[in-house]
Amino acid sequence: MNKKFYLETFGCQMNVVDSERIVDLLRQIGYGEVADAAEADLILLNTCSVRDKAERKVYGHLGSFKPLKDENPALILGVGGCVAQQEGERLLRKLPYLDLVFGTHNVHKLPEMVRSVEENRVRCHETEFLDRETRLQLFPVRTEGDSVTRFVTVMQGCDNFCSYCVVPHVRGREVSRPSAEILDEIRHLADSGVREVTLIGQNVNSYGGKEAGELSFAELLARVHEIEGIERIRFTTSHPKDLSDELIDCFGILDKLCTHIHLPVQSGSSRILQLMNRGYDREGYLDKVRRLKTVCPDIRLTSDIIVGFPGETGEDFEETLSLAAEVRYADIFSFLYSPRPGTAAAALSDDLGAKEKQERFDRLLALQEKNSREIWEGDCGKILPVLVEGESRQGDGQLFGRTTWNRIVNFAGDWSLVGKVINVRIVASRKNSQLGEIEESGSRNQES
Ligand code: 5AD
Ligand code: SF4
Questions:
Q1: On the chain, which terminus has fewer CB atoms closer than 10 Å, C or N?
Q2: Which ligand is located closest to the Cα atom of residue 278?
Q3: What residues contact residue 340 under an 8 Å CB cut-off, 6+ apart?
C-alpha cells in the first residue's frame, strides 16, 4: 500500500458511516490513510449542505488545498456527500482544480472513478440517484467492530420534505433495510466485542413503516434487545410525528435502551410548525414529551431548534422559549434559519433583520445554557453506570465512557475496563463532559 489518501468528514452520522465505507473501498485499491493532507496523493471531502455555513466551509476548505495541487499536479482532489449531490457537475465547473465529484448514492463508484482519474486524468462526476433495490444492496454494513460502540444504518433518505430542509433533495427517498439483515449485522458486531449500537437513519423511527410485512421500529428495538452481548441501544434521529405509543413504551420496557432521546422540535409555535410542514403542533409534541416522562421518569431529551424561520414573529419565538423551558432539554442544537436551494421555504419572504434573529438566538442559548448547567451539574455526587469506550481524547492517559444520557465521562482507570459497564461517581461537570471516579463498591444505577 504505497498510495495515500486524506479524508475529512463534515455533517451528520450518515456521512460518518459513508466515510467508513470510503476508507474500506480506498484500502481495497491500495490506498492507506494519512492524517496530513500534504502527504496525500488523494484528498477527499465528504460534505454537508444542511445549512449555508456548512456549505461555504467546504468551498473554503477546498480552496486551501489548491496550493498543494499547484505544487503536485498528480494530486487527486474529490468531493462527496451532500454538497456534491446538490451541485454535481457545477462543482467541477466552479473549481477547475477539482478532479471528481460523487453523490450520496454513488460512494460505491469511488474506486472506479479514482482509477479513471489516475489513468486518464479525466475529471468525472457521478450524482445519479439509484433505485430502491440497488440502494438496498449497497447499504453500509460492518460485521466486525473495532470499537465498543457502533452506528448501524437501518434506513436512509427522507420523505418528509420539511419546508426548510435540503435532506430529501440530496439523500433521496426513504428506504428501510430488511430487519433480518440488521439483526444479523448486530449479532456479528456483538460477537466481535461491540457493546452498544446506535440505530441510525434520517428519520429512524419511521423505520419499516413503508415496507409490507416489515417489523415496526419498536419491534425492531425489542429484537435487538434480545441479542446477547449488546448492553446498550440508542437510536437517532427521531421525528416527533413518528414517535408512536409503542415506541414510547419501549423506554419503560427495554432495560438496554438508553434513557435519552433526541427529539428535534424545531419551533414551539404551532403556526411556524405548520409552515415548516412538520406534521405536529406544539400540544402534540408536548403531549408526547409528557408520555415519555411518565413511562420513563429518568429520561433526558435533547432537541434541534431553528431560530428566525421566515415569518417568525416575536410571539412565535416566545413560544419556542416557553416550550424549551417546559421540556427542560438537557441540551439543544440551535440554528439560525438558512435558506436552502430547492426547498419550499426558500421561496418565502424573510423580512426579519439579522440583528433581531441574532438576539433571539442569544436568548435561546442563554436559557439553554442555564438548563444544561443545572442538569449536568446536578449529576455531581451521583453514581452512574458508564460504558467504558477507550482512552480519553484529552490524551492524559485517562479512560472515557458515556452515561445512559450520552454524556462523556473522563476518569482514571485500567485499560482492561474497556467494553465494560462500571459504576462511576460524577465529581465535576464541564461544558461538554463530566469528570468521574470509579466507584469500587456500591450499587449500580443510582440515577436521578
Ligand atoms: N436552516 C437552519 N437549520 C436547519 N436545519 C435543517 N435545515 C436547516 C435550515 N435550512 C437544522 C434542523 C435539523 C438539523 C439537523 O439542522 O434543526 O434538525
Ligand atoms: Fe429534513 Fe425533515 Fe427529513 Fe429531518 S425529517 S431530514 S428535517 S426533511
A1: N
A2: 2
A3: 49, 50, 51, 52, 164, 165, 166, 346
> What is the CA(411)–ligand 1 centre distance, in A?
34
Question: Which is more confidently placed, 56 or 249?
Answer: 249
Which homologous superfamily does the CATH classification assign to the domain defined by 383-438? Nucleic acid-binding proteins (2.40.50.140)
Residue bearing cell 452481548: 229
Cα 380 to middle of ligand 2, angstroms: 36
Q: Sorting pLDDT into bands at 50, 70 and 90, what band is 447?
A: very low
Q: Which amino acid is at 56?
A: R
Domain 383-438 in the same topology as domain 3-128: no
The model's pLDDT over 170-215, given as tens digits with 9 standing for 90+, comes to: 999 999 999 999 999 999 999 999 999 999 999 999 999 888 899 9
Say which ligand is closest to the CA of 306: 1
Cβ of 50 below 6 Å from ligand 1: yes
* pTM, full prediction: 0.94
Give the distance (Å) from ligand 2 centre to CA of residue 36.
34
Contacts of 365 (CB under 8 A, 6+ apart): 334
Give the residue extent of every domain in the chain. Answer: 3-128, 133-376, 383-438
- pLDDT per position as a tens digit, 335-346: 999 999 999 999
d(CA 255, CA 182): 20
What is the CATH T-level fold of the domain 133-376, as seen in this structure?
Answer: pyruvate-formate lyase- activating enzyme (3.80.30)
CATH number of 3-128: 3.40.50.12160
